[in-house]
Amino acid sequence: MLPGTWRVAATTFPMWLSGRRLDPTFTYTLLAEDPLVLRDEVRYRTRSGASRVIAGVDRFSGDRFVWRGSGLLRPLSSRWRVVHVSDDRDLVVLTFDKSLVTPAGMDVIVRRNAGRSSMPGNLPGADALHWL
After folding, report:
1. Helix/strand/coil for 131
2. Which string of DSSP letters, residue by residue, matches 24-73?
3. What pTM was estimated for this model as a whole?
4. What per-residue string of b and e applies to 8-19 under the rule 16 or more CB within 10 Å gives b?
5. Most buried among 71, 85, 109, 121, using CB within 10 Å?
């Protein structure tokens, strides 16, 4: 379900709301199935138009993924989980635990033109989302 490229459509994260990082996308590539391991690349543009990438690896453990940064980001980690998948699988809601460098939060990622109509109405925390 997750492999492929997703656009961040809504978020509670300051890094996407500050205006310094634009057009964020997440790309997941399957590295192993058992246990589930994904390559994780977050891409965005700066206000000056430069492209940036945050790379890491996600390992599924228990009921969530554990992200570990690559390269200089190797000391960093975060925990996240999938809390909703739309019926057409074009909208996914992710929640993130608080980490050393980010607050707890939520992202809505989409493929194609999925939008708010695919969001469940009773998802805790969804009222705090900002649609990009």
Report:
1. strand
2. EEEEEEEEEETTEEEEEEEEEEETTS-EEEEEEEEEEETTEEEEEE-GGG
3. 0.93
4. bbbbbbebbeee
5. 109
State the average pLDDT over residues 29-44.
97
Lowest mean pLDDT among 11-25, 32-46, 80-94, 113-127: 113-127
Q: Give the C-alpha separation, 65 to 62, whole Å.
A: 8
| Tokens read off for 22 | 């634009």
Residue 127's identity, in one-letter code, is D
Two tokens at 13?
A: 């994260």
Separation between Cα atoms, residue 38 and residue 35, nearest integer Å: 10
